[in-house]
Design goal:
Strand content: 5-15%
Radius of gyration: 42 Å
Order of helices and strands: EEHEHHEEHHHHHHHHHHHHHHHH
Bound molecules: zinc ion
Structural class: mainly alpha
Number of helices: 19
Strand order of the largest sheet: 3-5-4
Helix content: 55-70%
Distance between the termini: 91 Å
Shape: flat
Number of strands: 5
Amino acid sequence: MVNRKCTLCNNHFLGRVNDRFGVYAHINCVKDKLTYLEWQYCPTARDLIISHLPNERLQFNGGFSHCVWSQRHPAIPANMTLSYFLSTHEDEVLDAIKRHNEATALGTLSIRTASVAKRKAADAARDSFKEKFHEACIERNAPFRSVHGLRKQLCAPLFNLINVPRPEEMVRRAMFAIQHRNAVPDLLRRYVFEECDVTSVQLVTSYANRIDTIAWRYAFRAGSDPRQWVDMAINVKDVQLIPDALKQGFNAARVVRATHEFAADMEYVLSSQINMAASLEDFETRLQHLKTLPLEHADVRHMVTWRSDIVGIAASYKRAMECAGENAYTRFGGKCFELRGEHSAAQDLDTLMRA
Ligand SMILES: [Zn+2]
């Protein structure tokens, strides 16, 4: 076997000729001879160098950099090294560096020009807004003449609600807010003054005092009809059910009314039935059947919480009472809810009595 040696370190080496630089050497020995261009040259000079010299992109410090052979070495031709290239192309390299510096300066200049232009445009827009705002104030005979003057008349939250980038619209909203603010409770100001339409004011003044404040956020919101919430006492159970109903896309006011006669300890049962219902009508049907069950027993409430087939359960309980009497549940427990299929009363009783 031939004892081969690395041309650079003279140690044992059994690899292949490095096809980039044409040397028979360890890869690490080759790397020792290379230099990273990105560290030392601007992009224009780097491009000039790599267009003339063999180079390799190597990973360094997390990024890739172009590497060329740095110093002359007997193992490779002189014209493949950076030191030779610099000695023969000095003017071209200097020229590339100069071009880069000029381009960068121009770039900086254009960024500066752009930011000046942007600031001027912003100033002009602000001046134009002020002017139009002032004109709109005069035209509408507003009790203020500038944005600054308006700010002094409205509290910050109300100002923010009517603050829009269209001067005429902002003056209209401001005057509307000043006119109606005393008729609208703080909690409903967002509802009324985000759009500033008179219908909202009328709904609030007519119905707010007849709707539980807990329900205001549901009654007075886009797409809701406050009249549906009038004269309805909201309890703790409802507060939990309303979000469930809204999540299902059901009319929340109707859900609250439908569940009103159920006790507060039914909230989990009702909430889970809302989530299982296919529609509001389906939910109302489930409630009708729920009512027929002996809900005074905690076990029964627990059982129906996670059962979807309320209609079947209610039908079974009805049959159990028909064959075993009113106190069927106390006698037979959960078996009263499991009667299914077509059977006679005698057969049902037989099923209940079986262990
Ligand atoms: Zn070596």
